[in-house]
Specification:
By secondary structure, the protein is of the alpha+beta class. The protein folds into two domains: about 130 residues, Bipartite methylase S protein (Helix Hairpins, Orthogonal Bundle), CATH 1.10.287.1120; about 140 residues, DNA methylase specificity domains (Adenine-n6-DNA-methyltransferase TaqI, Chain A, domain 2, Alpha-Beta Complex), CATH 3.90.220. About 40% of the residues lie in helices and about 15% in strands. The protein contains five helices and eleven strands. The strands form four sheets. A four-stranded antiparallel β-sheet has the order 3-11-8-9. A three-stranded mixed β-sheet has the order 7-4-10, with no helix packed on it. A hairpin with a 7-residue loop joins strand 8 and strand 9. Helix 1 crosses helix 3 and helix 1 packs antiparallel against helix 5. The longest helix is centred in the first third of the chain and has 45 residues.
């Protein structure tokens, strides 16, 4: 009984210390992600020049933007096409293509593994298939979640849960628009007008008329390169902290196992060993 109590006391103390370290590191990850979001939001709404002349955008979430930027409705710069609706009654299996679902489109990442298939006839390709560089925007779920299609498959369709967003000209940098969507989603632009009883839903009609900030092409490129570099640096830091958390959890499990199986004598075990993996 005395040794059981010693083991219990030791593990209560040591696991509490490990858990506190894990909680601290999880908070570090949250702060890094907040910093990432704030960095993107500032760059795509204020630009990189702190001395730029500003103007009121007339849009609440944007506030002031550089005076030489445009804020047109999306339809003026990009076409928006909603994906194909699945219809089991009309399924023939004659023109099968893999297709993307909402779940396959994550922030800056597209899953192409084990995709389902649906009928997509050749005369529907222009409307319901993807081209390299198309942007994919989620209609529901995490509304506005966006990724870029990079031609991962020779031919791929998309379901009626995703908008295909395609620039109308070369004046806009596609990946810059991805960052605009990240900033807008982080700012709550696509939520259901603050009504908790309404499921957020981004229809094509709504998406087309949203007004977003668009700098000149060269400035879009500069902002894009800046954000790619800075966000990658933050992502590396997040990954390192996650690895540290994994090691702490592994150590916690190993410590418990060793203590309850008698592999270590907790009566002589110095406190603070978990700091070695922090």
């Amino acid at each position: 009984m005395e040794e059981q109590q010693a083991i219990a006391s030791f593990l209560d103390r040591e696991t509490a210390r490990i858990d506190a370290l894990i909680e601290k590191k999880q908070r570090q990850i949250e702060l890094l992600k907040e910093k990432r979001s704030a960095l993107i939001n500032h760059a795509v709404t204020k630009g990189l020049d702190p001395d730029a002349k500003m103007k009121d955008s007339g849009i609440e979430w944007l506030g002031e933007i550089p005076a030489h930027w445009d804020i047109p409705p999306l339809y003026a710069r990009y076409s928006v096409e909603l994906g194909k609706m699945l219809d089991a009654k009309r399924f023939t299996g004659n023109y099968l293509l893999p297709y993307l679902r909402n779940i396959d489109v994550q922030w800056d990442r597209v899953n192409v593994e084990n995709l389902p298939e649906m009928d997509t006839e050749p005369d529907e390709y222009s409307r319901f298939t993807l081209a390299d560089g198309d942007l994919l925007v989620c209609e529901g779920g995490e509304v506005g979640r966006t990724a870029m299609w990079s031609g991962e498959l020779p031919v791929c369709a998309f379901q009626k849960a995703i908008h295909r967003v395609r620039p109308r000209s070369t004046q806009d940098v596609r990946r810059f628009y991805y960052y605009i969507m990240r900033a807008a989603a982080w700012s709550g632009v696509f939520l259901a007008y603050g009504n908790p009883n309404t499921i957020p839903h981004l229809t094509a009609e709504k998406l087309r008329v949203y007004r977003f900030p668009f700098p000149p092409h060269d400035e879009q490129e500069m902002i894009l390169h800046h954000l790619d570099f800075e966000t990658q640096r933050i992502d590396v830091l997040v990954a390192k902290v996650k690895t540290s958390i994994d090691k702490l959890r592994e150590y916690r499990t190993a410590l418990i196992s060793a203590a309850v199986t008698g592999k270590i004598d907790v009566r002589t075990m110095p406190a603070g060993r978990q700091e070695e993996v922090s």
